[in-house]
Amino acid sequence: MAAIRLGDVAPNFTAESTEGTINFHDWLGDSWGILFSHPADYTPVCTTELGTVAKYKAEFDKRNVKVVALSVDGIDSHHGWINDINETQGTTVNFPIIADEDRKVSELYDMIHPNADSKLTVRSVFVIGADKKVKLTITYPASTGRNFDELLRVIDSLQLTAYHKVATPANWENGDDCVVVPAVATEDIPGIFPKGFKEVKPYLRMTPQPNLD
User: Fold this and answer.
1) Are 205 and 186 in contact (CB under 8 A)?
2) pLDDT, tens digit, 9 for 90 and up, residues 149-190
3) Residues with catalytic function
4) Cα–Cα distance between 194 and 208 in angstroms, integer?
5) Are the CB atoms for 70 and 33 separated by under 8 Å?
């Protein structure tokens, strides 16, 4: 099976979800997207994850990001599990969960890693841009819950660097200084980044985040 790599067009699919039939590319429209998988319904770590995503929906909306989850269980199971998530996590699930009983989407996105489990999906994450191309992939084992603050941080970086000639350094947070990309000559920096810059080394030039007032 071919791996999905950064820059690839995210494979399209049609699948049933808790919010009806989804054609993935049509559902994304002009939005960014997160597709993330869960080993199974009624599992403890997944319950906390989906509750967290529901609480973060306003943050994803601010970034024009749609979120969709997936596991290999069926629609009825998903709906029952949503009741548990809402009850135990003090929230309301407000995004679709794909029912992938035939594992069509799981196999399309290489979400089943046989040496980890031959039937259940690992915790895959795909961040997809408005151009339908894969911008980020992260794979966690079933035992480790995801950090959704980190996903928001990464999306902030991806969206910033998609439209400005900067990269983000280690541990960057929204509002921190950025790295001027090597393709920009030092003499051209003032015309591109009027907030100024600091040359640490000829190859390491820092500038204030360009998309903030």
Assistant:
1) yes
2) 999 999 999 999 999 999 999 999 999 999 999 999 999 999
3) 46
4) 9
5) no
